Amino acid sequence: QYGEFITAQAPDTCPATSEEVKGIFNAVYEALCDDLNTPIALSHIFDAVRLINSAKAGEQKLSKDDLETLTQLFDDIVFGVLGLKDEAAAESGKGQEIVSGLMDMVLEERAKAKAAKDWAASDAIRDHLKVLGITVKDTKDGAEWTIQ
């Protein structure tokens, strides 16, 4: 996730939340309170991203308080208010496990239909998955699937 790498490197000797981080945090909230001015809020969020990237590159140090403030900013505004997703976390999390488990179950039912020579059921499962954006490819080792 965006803060994990930096958190591991954040020295305890850094001062509490820096004025720069406080300024970014306050500027984002002020922009959103000003008639939900998302273009200005996003410009300040990109300032936060530049700050994080700079710390990741070792060009700047962030305190643990800075990281907590930036994490709160991303959680509250980027993921909460703006509704953007943290795709890396979503893909590596429980959701992906559930999708994989469900797909294993569906493909097992399809394999049973094929073994019983119930081609209509096998094709119906494959076609329904295709409508949902999932491509099933039969291989010598069984079926493989990808999300389009």
Distance separating the two termini: 24 Å
Which regions have little confidence, pLDDT < 50, spanning 5+ residues?
A: 1-15
Q: Main sheet: which strands, in order across?
A: 1-2
Q: How much helix is in the residues?
A: 55-70%
Strand content: 5-15%
Assembly annotation? single chain
Q: Report the count of strand segments.
A: 2
Report the biggest beta sheet as strand number plus sense, adding barrel if it closes: 2 strands, antiparallel
Query: Helix segment count?
Result: 7
Mean pLDDT: 81
Radius of gyration: 23 Å
The structural class is mainly alpha
Outline: elongated
Domain count: the total is 2
What does the model show?
This protein is mainly α. The chain has two domains: 4-90, no CATH class; 93-147, no CATH class. The chain is built from seven helices and two strands, in the order H-H-H-H-H-H-H-E-E. It has helices at 4-9, 19-33, 38-56, 64-81, 87-92, 94-115, 119-131, and strands at 134-139, 142-147. The chain has a two-stranded antiparallel sheet with strand order 1-2. Helix 2 (19-33) packs antiparallel against helix 3 (38-56), helix 2 (19-33) packs parallel to helix 4 (64-81) and helix 6 (94-115) runs antiparallel to helix 7 (119-131). Mean pLDDT is 81; it is low at 1-15.
